[in-house]
Design goal:
single chain, alpha+beta, about 40% helix, about 30% strand, rod-shaped
């Protein structure tokens, strides 16, 4: 099965997808803000691909005449009908912000409040732990001063 027409259809569709979807589509080009932070857009890319085809049998009158339609010594060349298609969807997910010694993901979707609360929990826990350590140190200093 040498160079079948469906192969060229599939090759053309896949090359088109490859031109559309590259790494810069998913992780965009970084943009530097005036304060020195770097903002990188992040996207979700989904793609689908389909191809199909059919070879049609020669008409009955060609079979009766013995006309194979091909060259001598080869299989007959049958009529071919086919098609290929592809679709690509690019959806923004968020922005990666790098600056001031931190890295944060700012999501685009509507659950931003919940995500922000989850992002602030580690900082809150660190502050609470720091407050308990200060109280313990102050109480230890008072006990040592009485001795």
């Amino acid at each position: 099965m040498g160079n079948h027409p469906i192969e060229s259809l599939m090759k053309t569709a896949m090359e088109s997808i490859q031109q559309i979807v590259d790494v810069n589509t998913i992780v965009g080009d970084p943009v530097e803000s005036p304060d020195g932070s770097v903002i990188i857009p992040i996207s979700r890319v989904s793609c689908g691909f389909a191809a199909g085809g059919s070879e049609f049998a020669p008409p009955d009158d060609d079979k009766e005449k013995g006309n194979s339609g091909g060259t001598p010594g080869q299989a007959p060349s049958l009529p071919f009908g086919g098609g290929a298609g592809a679709g690509v969807s690019v959806q923004p997910v968020g922005f990666l912000v790098v600056g001031n010694g931190t890295i944060r993901l700012l999501p685009v979707d509507s659950n931003v409040v919940v995500d922000r609360l989850i992002d602030t929990v580690p900082d809150l826990l660190d502050k609470i732990a720091g407050m308990f350590q200060k109280k313990k140190k102050v109480s230890d200093d008072i006990i040592i001063a009485r001795d």
